[in-house]
Structure formats: structure tokens, C-alpha cells
Amino acid sequence: SSHLPDARPLFSFAARSGVPAGFRPPPRRVVVTGGAGFVGSHLVDRLLEQGDSVIVVDNFFTGRKENVAHHLRNPRFELLRHDVVEPILLEVDRIYHLACPASPVHYKYNPIKTIISFIPDLHLLLYKTNVMGTLNMLGLAKRIGARFLLTSTSEVYGDPLEHPQKETYWGHVNPIGVRSCYDEGKRTAETLTMDYHRGGGVEVRIARIFNTYGPRMCLDDGRVVSNFVAQALRRQPMTVYGDGKQTRSFQYVSDLVVKETIDPMATIEFKPNTADDPHMRKPDITKAKQLLHWEPKVSLKEGLPLMVTDFRQRISDE
Ligand code: NAD
Ligand code: UDP
To answer: What region holds the NAD(P)-binding domain (predicted)?
Structure first.
């Protein structure tokens, strides 16, 4: 849909060479786990738009029904409240497995916010979703012969020593750190995915997503862009963890663009950093460009205002 260009870089079904412009793949039956979440709901928009039938499987742990409410009357859309930790039987051609409590507030040990400190139950939930949930969805893929896509994360590289990161880099990950549950959970999910591919003949895809921002992000999920946008709109100081020199693919958002977009008078507050915070992270997209003809198209200057509009509306509704 037209107002969501920020979803495009993630799931750009870029035409391969030789495919005529305007080509659309034949309609398919698709399940999207975690489809009521931020990334998932944008994917669902895209799939329905291209003619697929979509079943969303979500337990609404971090996702919201409102993210997909605009599809509830669409006969090609179905919404199932279900925890992927429990097995499920569906007849589909494609499985997009996004379900994962991905917000940092759910897994990062944050010495500042005493309310959101280390909560073992949440870590357990993350493991269960990543391990048992991924096993269940891979088992389903094998049983029904569906193609399986796992949304993994740049966190599998840990605090990378190689920069920028190529697909071939194995990472520099702390297995026993306070944020290891997310990194290692996703690494395990990747391992399971490749084992089902090699051993079970399942056709698989793994997408390692780097820091993504946009409309429908959880307002208080603790990620840097959502924090800065929500803080600026609420006229609170923007919290910079550590010295603020750590980099991500959207480096300038954190200390420049957000501030300009919302409130030039916005203040900044420095806070101690969380443990094991990666210092530098940036994808090497050479291979994606060559093989998938993919590259991001929406600049921060274009994308951020769209997110700010969404956040402003939701914050004013609070
Ligand atoms: P999100 O929290 O908005 O979406 C995750 C969805 O999964 C939510 O709707 C949640 O309710 C659902 N869910 C969680 N546990 C579940 C379970 N056990 N059963 C069923 N549903 C469950 O997060 P997102 O940013 O949209 O992330 C989507 C995927 O992309 C995740 O796998 C995440 O790890 C990955 N990812 C996202 C980013 C990013 O920057 N947004 C970066 C790297 C990887
Ligand atoms: N960060 C920050 N202030 C915040 C939230 C995050 O300075 O309010 C920093 C954080 O320490 C990290 C970067 O921003 O270096 C990105 O954090 P985020 O949690 O968004 O993503 P990830 O660390 O998973 O890449």
C-alpha cells in the first residue's frame, strides 16, 4: 500500500533479470507467524496486495490486532490467535515465520529501568518461541511441502569484528551474556532451519534483518528509533546509551535526523549503556544486490516522517 514504502526494502520481490516489469507471482496460500507485529503486518499488506491468501498466526504478545484490522473484511485474510510454541496444522504453500518477542525491553538487561530488569520468564518465552516455535513451523513446512522463511537478525553477528557484515561472517557472539537469549535463540532458529533443509528437504530462506523502523512499531519497545521518536513527541529528553558512538545502519537517526524532524529544541540525555551492546553494525549488501537485485530505496529523510505521523497519532490517542 502506498503509505508504507518503508516495508519495501525488507520484502522487495525484485524482478530477477529476464522477468518482465509488472510481473506478479501466481496467488499463493501463505501463513505469516507474527503477522500482527510491526514487520509482519507490513508483509501481510504486501502479500494481500499481490493477490495471496494470508493466514496470520499471532499470540499478540507484542503485536496488535489493530495492525491488521484493515484486512478483517478481506475474504483472503484470516487471523488466528495461536502461540507457535503449540503445534498447528494448516494447508499452505509458504510459511513466513516472524513470530518472536523481538523488542529489546523484553530481553535486554537495562540497569536504568528497574521495572524492566532481567525477567527470566520473558527469556524463557523467547527461547520457546525461537526453538519450539521454529521447530513446529519447520515440521509443518516439511509435512505439507511448504517453503519456509525465517526472519533472523543482524544480532546473530553479535558485536562483530568484521565490518561491514557479509553473509559468510560467523559472528562474534557472547553465549552467556545478558542479551544472549535473543542472539543465540535466533542462531538456533537458523541452525534448525538449515538442518530441516539439509535433512528434511525443506525449501528454506533466511533473512537477517538489520535495524528497521517505521509506522506500527511498538511505541515503547525500547529500540532506539521508537524511543527517540516517542520521547521527542512527548517532549522528554532523548536517551543516548553510553557515549552514543555505537553505529547501526541508520546511524544519523539517533543524533541528528529525528531531532530535526520533530522538534529542533529536543534535549538529549546520556545514560549508561546496556551490556554487550554491539559497537558497529552495517550489512554488506553486495550479494543481495547481485542475486536478488535488491537494495533499500527509502532514505531516512523520507521514511522517518511517515513513522512520526503514525507515532504522533498513537501518542495523542493515549
Ligand atoms: P514485533 O514484536 O512487532 O512482531 C513479532 C510478532 O510475533 C508480534 O506480533 C508477536 O505478538 C508475535 N509473537 C511473539 N511470540 C509469539 C508466539 N510464541 N506465537 C505467536 N506469535 C508470537 O517485532 P518485529 O520488529 O515486527 O519483528 C518481526 C521479526 O523480524 C522477528 O522475528 C524479529 O526477530 C525480526 N527482526 C526485526 C528487526 C527490526 O528491526 N524490526 C530486526 C531484526 C530482526
Ligand atoms: N540506544 C540508545 N538510546 C535508546 C535506545 C537505544 O542510545 O533509547 C542505542 C543502543 O545502545 C544501541 C543502538 O541505540 O547501541 C540501537 O539499539 P536498538 O535497541 O534499537 O537496536 P540493537 O541494539 O538491537 O541494534
So the answer is: 32-257
